[in-house]
Amino acid sequence: MPSSEEDLQSKILDVEEQWQFPFTWAAVDGCHIPMKCPPDGNEASKEFHNFKNFYSLVLISLVDAKYRFDAKYRSPCNSRDSIILQSTSLWTDLKA
After folding, report:
1. For 20-35, what is each residue's pLDDT tens digit?
2. pLDDT at position 79 over 80
3. Which residues on neighbouring strands pair with residue 28, listed in sequence order?
4. What are the φ and ψ backbone dihedral angles of 15, each rounded to 5 degrees?
5. Which of 4-13, 23-32, 37-46 has the lowest mean pLDDT?
6. Which residues pair with residue 64 across a beta bridge?
7. What percent of the chain has pLDDT over 70?
8. Which residues contact 11 (CB under 8 A, 6 or more apart)?
9. Burial (CB count <10 Å: 0-12, 13-18, 19+), residue 36
10. Which DSSP category does 20 fall into?
11. 94 has a pLDDT exceeding 90
12. Which residues contact 29 (CB under 8 A, 6 or more apart)?
């Protein structure tokens, strides 16, 4: 996360210069991290079983123009990425 207005402006310029994508300071995305079936019974196995038919956690992360990676949240995979993102501190920070 940018720590100041100057830091934010610097990150925005980095993305625009590197990738020709204006008014952006980072990319956000989610990915599935495969895992073994959790031992906590049927409810836990449903929670971690994804639509691709394997067990996983979802990792939501940011990457800036200089390939700096910041993992923000891990969650059971039965929710959409947008719902998971809204339950992170990143979402709270962005709204502030």
Report:
1. 999 999 988 888 889 8
2. no
3. 62
4. -65, -40
5. 37-46
6. none
7. 88
8. 2, 25, 26, 64, 65
9. exposed
10. -
11. no
12. 60, 61, 63, 81
Query: Cα-flanking dihedrals φ and ψ of residue 94, to 5°?
Result: -70, -35
Residue-wise burial string across 10-31, b where 16 or more C-beta atoms lie within 10 A, e elsewhere = ebbebbeeeeeeeeebbebebe
Beta strand ranges found along 6-77 (DSSP E): 27-34, 56-63, 69-76
Residue listed under structure tokens 């339950």: 87
Copy the structure tokens of residue 11: 């990150």
Residue 19 tokens read as 């990738």
Residue among 9, 38, 43 nearest 23 (CA): 9
Q: Are strands 56-63 and 69-76 parallel, antiparallel or unpaired?
A: antiparallel
The DSSP secondary-structure symbol of 3 reads S
Cβ–Cβ contacts within 10 Å for residue 77, how many? Answer: 25
Neighbours of 84 (CB within 10 A): 21
Is the whole model's pTM more than 0.85, yes or no? no
Assigned token pair, 76: 């059971």
